[in-house]
Design a protein that fits this description.
Low-confidence stretches: 1-18, 20-26
CATH class of the largest domain: Alpha Beta
Largest sheet: 14 strands, mixed
Number of domains: 2
Helix content: 10-25%
Shape: globular
Mean pLDDT: 94
CATH superfamily of the largest domain: Alkaline phosphatase D (PhoD)
CATH architecture of the largest domain: 4-Layer Sandwich
Radius of gyration: 23 Å
Number of helices: 8
Length: 522
């Protein structure tokens, strides 16, 4: 049965003058009249292919309120895609419906565009319109591509620093951005943060307590997305988005959290978090939540230059061994039944690698693959929330790459709040022969505060791990400049995020030549 569309008077009463509807009932409110700007959370594009991309927005005139200032009714949203910034040539347009079941978020899968070129998009509702966003379609399948230039970023704890890095990344006009996760952090508001550098005063705070419900997660995303620097980063280019742990809870895996919550109860939290993640990311319908599950592993191609295998290292993983202790090891590290990707995703990845004909194969994922010894002294110790805590699946992956003689495999990682560059071996303690693949770990946008050029433990890691070629502990992002002949990774860092206006510099450039997985300074 179709419910009646709310009357103009009932909407005004419900919203305090937020939005009214005029025109005929159509199942969605027709021609809304806004008393407050509805697009306060910005716009975004994502998952570019050779003929299109997803464009996203969310109607929220009062983003931090329960109900976000919207009626409990669907609302129409118009959209346009143009071949020029001035929108003189509209190439695609239409109308989507922002539904209350999805927090009035809109995901439009734009198709029929030309490969390998930039486009511009915008939304409108009533008399209100968004600024334009930019997105680049992927080159045609198998096409010769001379160069790709894209960004890698993530770990953006709102409390611990300003988003200057997002503003700087937006100015790069990149082909796309890969966001490895930790888009939000789940914790309650805190005036201070205590980390390896001691206790610092946070320059801003989360609103409210730790997030558990769908409304909680929606408000947390809204607080983040109200940041104008983050909005500029989204509007600058399309993103490929995955998640890590803080979109739900620190160090969660499968149905387990760090607090020992009843798994059935934790899955309710996962379900709320999964829906909120989908609502706020420019994801395709193929990633639509099914209960607590999201289909986030997927493949993207950039012509014949790169195949990106976007991985999910949280949803299918077995519990961390050794009680997830820091810088240690135990028998659980060698558990034969351990999983990082889960069987289905692992087999999907192997098929994709076997079938790829691209010059470079990219594993775009979250947790470090290098088995970095982090314990001072002769006994080894690992971060057990990384692949190093799962020796059997780690070796299975690397052995597969090695045995199939796959060349030009590059791993892109986040999570660590530091920059790293290094080489992958079956056993990093005895790195014999040629490296199997290369890995670049991108630092955080803001998590852990200002940071420093290099911490004492970072210097020790370099001394104790011969496969590690670079380390830095400042905030920022990475730009990957890729040609058929070489992969160049530029580590962009800021002198501070505790205040606005930090200065950006390129701290290091590391290079991998085609056919040779060694990482060298550029």
């Amino acid at each position: 049965m179709r419910l009646p569309v709310p009357s103009r008077r009932s909407l005004i009463l419900a919203l305090g003058g937020g939005v009214a509807a005029t025109g005929p009932a159509r199942g969605a409110l027709a021609d809304p009249v806004w008393a407050e700007y509805p697009f306060q959370l910005g716009i975004a594009a994502g998952d570019p292919t050779s003929d299109g991309f997803v464009i996203w927005t969310r109607l929220a005139p009062r983003p931090l309120e329960i109900g976000h200032g919207m009626p409990s009714a669907p609302v129409p949203v118009k959209w346009e895609v143009a071949s020029d910034r001035g929108f003189g040539t509209i190439v695609r347009s239409g109308e989507a419906v922002a539904r209350p079941e999805l927090g009035h978020a809109v995901h439009v899968e734009v198709e029929g565009l030309q490969p390998g070129r930039e486009y511009f998009y915008r939304f409108a509702s009533g008399r209100e319109r968004t600024p334009y966003g930019r997105a680049v379609t992927a080159p045609a399948a198998g096409a010769t591509v001379d160069r790709a230039r894209f960004g890698v970023l993530g770990c953006q704890a709102y409390e611990q620093g300003f988003y200057t890095a997002h503003r700087k990344a937006a100015a790069e006009e990149l082909d796309f951005i890969y966001c490895y996760g930790d888009y939000i952090y789940e914790g309650r508001g805190n005036r201070t943060y205590t980390g390896s550098g001691g206790t610092i005063e946070n320059p801003r705070m989360h609103a409210g307590g730790e997030v558990y419900s769908l409304d909680d997660y929606r408000r947390r995303y809204a607080q983040y997305k109200l940041d104008s620097d983050l909005q500029s980063s989204h509007a600058s280019t399309a993103w490929y988005c995955t998640w890590d742990d803080h979109e739900i809870d620190n160090n969660w895996v499968d149905a387990l959290d760090q607090d020992g919550t009843d798994p059935a109860v934790f899955m309710l939290r996962r379900q709320a978090a999964a829906q909120a993640f989908y609502e706020h990311m420019p994801l395709r319908r193929s990633s639509f939540p099914k209960g607590s599950a999201l289909q986030l592993y997927r493949k993207a191609s950039w012509g014949g230059l790169m195949d990106l295998h976007l991985l999910d290292t949280r949803q299918y993983r077995s519990d961390q061994p050794c009680d997830d202790a820091w810088a240690t090891t135990c028998a659980g590290v060698d558990a034969a039944e351990a999983q990082v990707l889960g069987e289905a995703q692992e087999q999907w990845l192997y098929r994709g690698l076997d079938q790829s004909r691209a010059q470079w194969n990219v594993l775009a994922q979250q947790i470090m693959v290098m088995d970095l010894d982090r314990k001072e002294g002769p006994e080894p110790g690992y971060n057990l929330d990384t692949w190093a805590g799962y020796r059997i699946p780690r070796n299975r992956l690397l052995k597969r790459i090695q045995d199939r003689r796959m060349k030009n495999v590059v791993v892109l990682t986040g999570d660590e709040h530091q920059n790293y560059a290094g080489e992958l071996f079956l056993n990093g303690a005895e790195p014999t022969g040629a490296p199997i693949a290369s890995e670049f770990v991108t630092t955080s946008i803001s998590s852990s505060g200002d940071g420093q050029d290099q911490r004492a433990d970072g210097r020790r890691y370099l001394a104790d791990n011969p496969f590690l070629k670079f380390n830095n502990a400042q905030r920022g992002y990475v730009v990957c400049d890729v040609t058929p002949d070489a992969w160049k990774t530029e580590f962009k860092v800021l002198d501070k995020v505790s205040e606005k206006g930090g200065t950006l510099s390129t701290r290091a450039t590391m290079v991998v030549q085609s056919g040779d997985a060694r990482v060298t300074a550029g």
